[in-house]
Amino acid sequence: MPWPSRKRDKGAVADKKEPDAKIAKTKEETQDKGEGEKSTKPSAGSSKSGWKNWKKSKESDSGGEESKITYCHWLLKSEPESRLEKGVDVKFSIDDLKAQPNQTTFWDGVRNYQARNYLRAMKLGQQAFFYHSNCKEPGVVGIVKIVKEAYPDHTQFDQKDPHYDSSSRKENPKWSMVDVQFVRMTKRFIPLSEIKAHHLAHKADGGPLKNMMLFTRQRLSIQPLTQEEFDFVLSLEEEKP
To answer: Which pTM does this prediction carry?
Structure first.
């Protein structure tokens, strides 16, 4: 494959967009890549009207019944800008995915146990946000779908790969990956800063993004989303930035 080990979560750092993030240091070698929160918080009240309008629309569609909280969608982080890791460029943007045969590729290089478990929980046909991470402007750029459920990540056995794991055995592999396929670009780029503004507002008024893992477990490169979280973030593509 022309893009070896491009989605990885080893040696996590904060996104360039958020230099003031306070991220706890760890000796673990399997930490995820992600975004820290900005030290200057946007106004929590800026998204209340948007949440109320969205909620009213959803209640109208469902007769006012609240949806059962389950994780059925995902957010996958990948780096759109070049960065060498053990001599290998781990860059992989959504345009790189679109350039792959059948616009499909394997999501390799995950080396965090919780993120791996999320990969193993993915089901055929489920959709995920493709999220550009560790770049000047992180955020959601498109939608992909799971086209092959979890199977052993071959990069764990490749000594030339930056994510080689000498402790993993072929008879009992530690790490898994899935195959994803491009579905579409979002109608507009949805930046982390905008999603965060809604998250802060929803923490105050009980909106769908109040517990979004992008902010509660921001270092994870593979994150689950509830139906409500996915629907709300997707609704933002229809709004003017």
So the answer is: 0.77
